[in-house]
Structure formats: structure tokens, C-alpha cells
Amino acid sequence: MDTKMNFEYINPIFTQLSGYTEEELLHKNINDTIYKGKTPDSRADVAQALRNGEKWQGELLTYHKTGKNYWANTIAAPYKDESGNVEG
Known about the structure:
Blueprint: H1 12-18, H2 22-25, H3 44-51, E1 56-63, E2 69-76
Antiparallel strand pairs: 1-2
């Protein structure tokens, strides 16, 4: 994920859980897709970790493509270039 919360990599298992295809998510903003515009403060720590170049892990309330919600054990890692600098 980049620092603007856009998907830069999609785990194949995540597509099965979320109902989205890789093409529907890649380079799209997480808040416009799996969070359906619902961005509570609890996700602010994820965004902050990514901006700091850190990995974040925990459970997040997520939305399936159909709109049904589910809890997902999530690992979010920043997208870095070959030199290890955070991109985005």
C-alpha cells in the first residue's frame, strides 16, 4: 500500500475474502473500495504507520464487495522502492 492508502499489491487470498478481483483493487484507494467510504478513527493508526514506513498488523472491520461486513486479520505494509524508501 502507498502512503495515500492505495493498493500496490493484492494478496490472492484477499480477493477471495473480499469478493473483488485484483484489477478492481490495484491502485485504488482502500477507503473507496473495501471500506465503502466508512473510515472510522481506528484506521488512522494504519495510515500513520504506513506514512512512517512501518508495517501494521491487527483486526479491521472490512466490507465485502456485496456490502456485507466481516473482521479481517490485516497486515498493511508500506510500498518501498529498491532503496527502501516509502513511495506514494
